[in-house]
Amino acid sequence: MAPIKVLFVCLGNICRSPLAEGIFDRLIAEKGLSGTICTDSAGTAAYHIGANPDPRSVSVAKVHGIRLNHRGRQFSESDFRNFDYILAMDRYNFQDIEMLYTKKDRASLYLMRAFDPEGRGEDVPDPYYGGDQGFEEVYRMLVRSSEELLQTICEEKIGKF
Ligand code: 4NP
Fold first, then answer.
1. Of 107, 131, 140, 161, which has the maximum CB count within 10 A?
2. Which residues in 11-55 belong to E strands, given as ranges?
3. Which of 33, 32, 39 is nearest to 84 (CA)?
4. 3-class state of residue 55 by DSSP
């Protein structure tokens, strides 16, 4: 079976989406699904192509035992053909990429917090201009959302959890 492909999208691809990717990778590994589901992340903007994740995302990930390993890249229309699930961090990211979506595309597009039982459908707020506490809050939202997202993917594509 071809791997199920999941893409996380934010604005800059240095704060939220690389953190989401790292959290989801850990969860996949914990469930023994590392070869079954694969992940990536991208930004709607081109500001940080090739850049390492923001040091504050690296730091909050490290505190929780996750090592981030990603270089910034910009979202491309072809991602809709190459991924099964695309998760936008906020409504602006969602709207920006939704405009590029065609009915023939393979991916299902969701807001990340459509899967957060403690704030369903809300944005993962952009922590870039704020302090460290914002990154910890983003981390918690992403952990909650990732758990339900993985459960949904397993039910839809694998038939077990
Ligand atoms: P991200 O955060 O979308 O979560 O990666 C941002 C990173 C950089 C900028 C804005 C948001 N920026 O304006 O450079």
1. 107
2. 37-43
3. 39
4. helix
Q: How many CB atoms lie within 10 A of CB 46?
A: 12
Smallest CA separation from ligand 1 atom 8, residue: 12
Q: What is the CATH number of the domain that holds 8?
A: 3.40.50.2300
Distance 159 CA to ligand 1 centre (A): 36
Number of structural domains found in the chain: 1
Q: Measuring CA to CA, how many Å separate 47 from each of 79, 106, 149?
A: 19, 27, 28
Query: From first to last of its 161 residues, what are the pLDDT tens digits of the chain?
Result: 899 999 999 999 999 999 999 999 999 999 999 999 999 999 999 999 999 999 999 999 999 999 999 999 999 999 999 999 999 999 999 999 999 999 899 999 999 999 999 999 999 999 999 999 999 999 999 999 999 999 999 999 988 55
Residue 49 CB burial class (10 angstroms; 0-12, 13-18, ≥19):
middle
Q: What is the pTM of this model?
A: 0.98
16 is catalytic: yes
Residue 129: which domain range?
4-158
